[in-house]
Structure formats: structure tokens, C-alpha cells
Design goal:
The protein is an alpha/beta fold and about 575 residues long. The protein is built from 24 helices and 19 strands. Bound molecules: ligand C2E and calcium ion (CA) (2 copies).
Length: about 575
């Protein structure tokens, strides 16, 4: 009979037994003798000699804590500080329960209580420890982040799983650390400086997690993940800030952490960090707070988002989604009259009631489900335009909202063309709203798509204008027909002269660039009058009407027809 490869490996594995009592050494040697090669030592000094000699082939040390000459604690700390020896896992042998935590903190992998358990139990613990450690050692060779020499993210995630297995009963915290506006640091001070900051943060984290039995990694360019035993009063942010401060004097305002405390071990590691990240993101751009905890509210939001995701498909097939239309009125040309409409989706959920798009759109944008929903709205809107054409003999153009990820889809232009063609309407009956922030993300690709649409005769509206960061010279390069002034822009124009001045500036620019301006979210007469005076051509808002279902919208079409008859006669 040949030995299997596994058996031969096992045969070679050496375990060092360190105990001052002969009876213990013999018992253990006896228990492991069939599976491993047992080496023995009577105290720390002897053990050290053996370890140094066999450091690259030693699989495990079984270590008694109380010994003369050099005791187990001392040996542990010597091992911890030696690059070669710290690699060898140690299982501590002890009769004191209180020693357990202390030795685990000092780097022991596990412990075996005295008097000894059944041999199978001891063997199982030994086998598990050796196996886990081999995994770590195989991986760790290449698993570092070059810049910071912290773990990289893949290894970190695997290691976190191992920690869970080792310490199933230790409460753990998931922590995400982020640097506010890191790209600005890079831009203003150069990459080398940015790298230096990252290195410092990295080494501070390393120092911290070493002292606190945790692990850390650089997860993204400027974000770090830390998995660490729970603390009620975490001092990690202070610790890191202090060490980064001498290089970056505003570190206080730059560093921000999100903590998911005492993690639920039943959910995946990655999701635990999603939660910490959610907390961290909740205080982005908020300079008065730099620590946030994952809390009940976030938990509810998360659960709600999950509910929405799982209900969407059925919602679509059960016709729970309805398209509403909000009228846009031209106001510069005598009495206001209806020019067009915006299609806005509504979800009549059978149990949750009316769910606002402000809640579900961001959720579906994040996971891509928005594509399906948008296609539904686009089709509905196109066929509605056609229905009204058939019924009233007039084209009321409808604009549809297009999410950033829709625009990046290869077949997007073809799809829109198909939809319009099969509804039997022309491109003049259909407009496309793209939010301003989309332009700042990947503008080249976006501009190309928009140009193709315009070449086909579609008009493009830049939605939420004033909330993104498009610079003036960028604006002149953008192929856009209409600027839709964001609601926030005009909310206070009747009380704040500065805001009104901004609108007037936009009007000058739009005129120069030959763009139409639509003001949205207009609620009050004063706003309406000021906007009219400023030259805004089109108004959309509660001042005229909320978004309404198509049947109700027909009132506006009838008024428009009446208006046309009056002005032509
Ligand atoms: P948006 O595109 O900026 O749409 C304008 C929002 O302002 C709509 O909210 C509209 O109901 C609301 N609004 C209009 N006039 C007033 C007013 O005078 N006062 C106030 N307070 N609000 C006004 P809604 O319908 O809740 O939609 C919210 C957002 O959800 C939309 O913002 C849009 O970004 C998104 N959305 C809605 N439908 C769709 C869709 O079919 N596809 C996509 N991708 N996004 C959609
Ligand atoms: Ca819109
Ligand atoms: Ca808008």
C-alpha cells in the first residue's frame, strides 16, 4: 500500500510539546504520536532552541503556561516579536480559565484545558489549528497592499473568516475608515503627498490592530477596513488622527469612520462591512461629525430596500407601477399654456401603499434594476403620447428620465428609437432628461450618446441643473437643448436676492448658448412672477399641477386646445 500524499505530509508535520511535567509531555506525545512527529521541551529556553532549529518545518507548538526558567507568556511574547517564530501557531495548555483570554491576546491560536479532554477532542483542535494556519501562510506570501503594506482586500476578507472560526465567541466590530475628499488632496499637493498620507494611515492602522488583536486592510484607494474585537469606547480614530496629524494638519476633519459594532456573526463578512460603510457614508461631507454607528434607522432602511428589491418584479407584472404626468407650461407668450409633460413613475404597493420614487429609484439605480423599470416607463410614455395624438390630434411631447446606467448601455440609442417607432410617434414627441451629475462622471461617453440622439431629432434636457458641478466652459461643450433648473435653486428666490441673482445669471448663459430654461418645483405665485420676469421660458411645479394620472392630465390638453383656438381666431 502506498501512503497518500496527504499521509506523507502528515507524517512530516512536527509538533513541539512544551511542558515541565513529564507526565503531561508523555500523555500528549501519546495522543498525537500516530498522526504527527512529537518534539518535546521542558521549559521556554529549551523550547526556543528547538523552535529556532526547526522553525520552517514546525507546524504547531503545544505550550504550558506555568513553567520554571522561561514561562509560556514570556515565550509567547518572544515568538510574537520574531518574524520566523510568529508564523508558528501556538495552542496553550492551561488549567486556569482566566489565562485563556490573556494568551489569546498574546497571539495564541487556541487553548486546551487541563486536565486533558478526550484524545479525539485534542486531536481535532490541533488539526483545525494547523489547517487554518497553513491556509493563512500560503495566502499571506503575496497578499499585501504595496503602498501601505496592510493586507489587501481579498486576503483581509478571508482572514476575517478565519478569525470568526478561531474566536466564535469574541464580540467583533467592523470599522470602515475613509478620507474626506482625498482626490482634492492629490490634486492640490500631488500624488506623492497623497501616497504618503495613505502610508501613514496604513501604518497607524497596523500599529493599532496589532495592539488590539484585529486586522486591517486598504480596501479602496482611500478607504480602509478594520476588523477588531469590540470596544464600547473606540479610540481608533483618535489614535490614527494623532499619527497622521504631523503630515496633514487638518487630519481632524479629514478622517471619518463608520462602525458596525458587535457584528451579527450570521451575516456574511462583506455585508457586515457594507453596514459599517453605510454608517461611514452617512456622515460624508459633514464636517462636524467624524464617527457614525450603523443604527436602527439604517437597519430599517436596509430592510426596506431589500423588501423593495424583492417586490419589484411582481410589482411590474401586477401593474402596480403607474406613470403619472406633470404638465410643463410656457409662460413668456401671453397666457401660460401647456407645452409638454414629464413622465414620473408611481408605485402603488399593495401593502406599503404609495411608495415615493425618491425611495425606490436610488435603490434600483444601485443594483441595476432601474433598467427594467425605466424601459417600462419609456414604453408607457411613448404609447401615451400616441394615444393623446389619436384622441386630440395634437402632440404633447413627454420627457422621460434616464438614469446614468441606462445611458451607458450599448443598445440604449437603438432601444429608444425602437420604442418611439413602435409607438408610432416621432422624435419631436419625446424628450430625454439626463441628470446633471451624470455629465460629470463619464462625460465623453455620455456626450457621444447624447449627440447620436440629437442627430436622430430627440431633444435633451439637463435635469437638476445647479446641483452638479458642471463648469461654465464645460456647459458650452455639452449637447443639451434645455436646462432644467433644480428645485433647490429656486426655492428661496422670493426671499433671497442672491438666489434670484443666480437664476438671472443662468438665464444669461442659457441665452448665450441658445438653450431653453425650465424651472421646476415652482410652488408660489411670487416664484412664478420672478421667474417670468427673469425670462424663464417654461415652468413645471405644483403652482400649476402635481404629477397626475393620464386621465386627469387630459384636462390640460383640452385647455391647451382651447387656448390654441382662441389665439388663432
Ligand atoms: P426629478 O426628475 O427631478 O422629478 C421632479 C420631482 O419633483 C418629481 O418628484 C416631482 O413630483 C417633484 N415636483 C414637481 N413639482 C414640484 C413642486 O412644485 N414642489 C415639490 N416639492 N416637488 C415637485 P417624484 O415624482 O417624487 O420623483 C422624484 C425623482 O425620482 C425624480 O426627480 C427622478 O429623478 C426620479 N424618477 C421619477 N420617475 C422616474 C423614472 O421613471 N425613471 C427614473 N430613472 N427616475 C425617475
Ligand atoms: Ca426629471
Ligand atoms: Ca429634476
Amino acid at each position: 500500500m502506498y501512503e497518500s500524499f496527504e499521509d506523507r505530509l502528515k507524517f512530516r508535520k512536527k509538533i513541539l510539546i512544551v511542558d515541565d511535567e513529564l507526565i503531561n509531555r508523555e500523555m500528549l506525545a501519546n495522543i498525537i504520536g500516530n498522526d504527527y512527529e512529537a518534539l518535546t521541551a521542558e521549559d521556554g529556553n529549551q523550547a526556543l532552541d528547538v523552535m529556532i532549529r526547526y522553525h520552517d518545518t514546525l507546524s504547531l507548538v503545544l505550550l504550558d503556561l506555568l513553567m520554571p526558567v522561561m514561562d509560556g507568556y514570556e515565550l509567547l511574547s518572544v515568538m510574537k516579536n520574531d518574524a520566523n517564530l510568529s508564523r508558528i501557531p501556538v495552542i496553550v495548555l492551561t488549567s486556569e480559565v482566566s489565562a485563556e483570554v490573556k494568551s489569546l491576546n498574546m497571539g495564541a491560536a487556541d487553548f486546551i484545558p487541563k486536565p486533558f479532554d478526550a484524545p479525539e477532542v485534542i486531536l481535532a483542535r490541533i488539526r483545525k489549528t494547523i489547517q487554518l494556519h497553513e491556509n493563512i501562510n500560503i495566502l499571506s506570501a503575496t497578499q499585501y497592499d504595496e503602498l501601505t503594506s496592510l493586507f489587501n482586500r481579498e486576503f483581509f476578507m478571508e482572514y476575517a473568516v478565519v478569525i470568526d472560526q478561531y474566536y466564535p465567541d469574541v464580540k467583533m466590530d467592523a470599522v470602515v475608515l475613509d478620507i474626506n475628499r482625498f482626490h482634492a488632496i492629490n490634486e492640490m499637493n500631488g500624488r506623492a503627498y497623497g501616497d504618503e498620507i495613505l502610508r501613514r494611515v496604513g501604518s497607524a492602522i497596523k500599529e493599532y490592530v496589532r495592539a488590539n488583536s484585529g486586522i486591517g486592510c486598504r480596501y479602496n484607494a482611500d478607504s480602509f477596513y478594520i476588523y477588531i474585537p469590540h470596544s464600547d469606547t473606540p479610540d481608533i480614530l483618535d489614535f490614527i488622527t494623532e499619527r497622521v496629524q504631523e503630515k496633514m494638519d487638518d487630519a481632524q476633519n479629514r478622517l471619518r469612520i463608520g462602525i458596525y459594532p458587535d457584528v451579527d456573526r450570521n451575516i456574511e463578512i462583506a455585508r457586515r462591512f457594507d453596514r459599517a460603510l453605510l454608517a461611514c457614508t452617512s456622515i460624508r461631507g459633514n464636517f462636524s461629525e467624524n464617527t457614525a454607528y450603523y443604527n436602527e434607522k439604517m437597519h430599517e432602511d436596509e430592510a426596506f430596500a431589500e423588501r423593495l428589491m424583492s417586490d419589484m418584479e411582481k410589482g411590474l407584472s401586477d401593474n402596480q407601477f403607474i406613470v403619472y404626468y406633470q404638465p410643463k407650461f410656457a409662460i413668456q407668450d401671453g397666457d401660460p399654456y401647456l407645452t409638454s409633460a414629464e413622465a414620473l413613475i408611481r408605485w402603488k404597493h399593495p401593502e406599503l401603499g404609495m411608495v415615493s420614487p425618491g425611495r425606490f429609484i436610488p435603490v434600483f439605480e444601485k443594483n441595476g434594476m432601474i433598467r427594467k423599470l425605466d424601459r417600462f416607463v419609456w414604453k408607457e410614455a411613448a404609447s401615451q403620447v400616441r394615444k393623446w395624438e389619436d384622441k386630440f390630434g395634437i402632440t404633447i411631447p413627454v420627457s422621460v428620465n434616464v438614469s446614468r446606467i441606462d445611458m451607458m448601455d450599448r443598445g440604449f440609442v437603438g432601444l429608444i428609437t425602437d420604442i418611439v417607432n413602435s409607438a408610432g410617434i416621432g422624435p419631436d414627441g419625446y424628450m430625454i432628461e439626463v441628470t446633471e451629475s451624470a455629465y460629470t462622471d463619464d462625460s465623453d461617453k455620455l456626450i457621444e450618446v447624447v449627440n447620436r440622439l440629437r442627430a436622430l431629432g430627440f431633444r435633451i434636457e439637463m435635469d437638476d441643473f445647479g446641483t452638479g458641478y458642471s463648469s461654465l466652459n464645460m456647459l458650452s461643450a455639452l449637447p443639451v437643448d434645455v436646462l432644467k433648473l433644480d428645485m433647490r435653486f429656486i426655492r428661496n428666490i422670493h426671499t433671497n436676492p442672491k438666489d434670484l441673482r443666480m437664476v438671472q445669471l443662468v438665464m444669461e448663459i442659457a441665452e448665450y448658448l441658445n438653450m431653453t430654461v425650465v424651472a421646476e418645483g415652482v410652488e408660489y405665485k411670487e416664484q412664478y412672477e420672478l421667474l417670468k420676469e427673469a425670462g424663464v421660458q417654461v415652468i413645471q411645479g405644483y403652482y400649476f399641477s402635481k404629477p397626475v394620472p393620464p386621465e386627469e392630465f387630459e384636462v390640460f390638453i383640452k385647455e391647451r386646445i382651447e387656448h390654441d383656438n382662441n389665439t388663432s381666431s
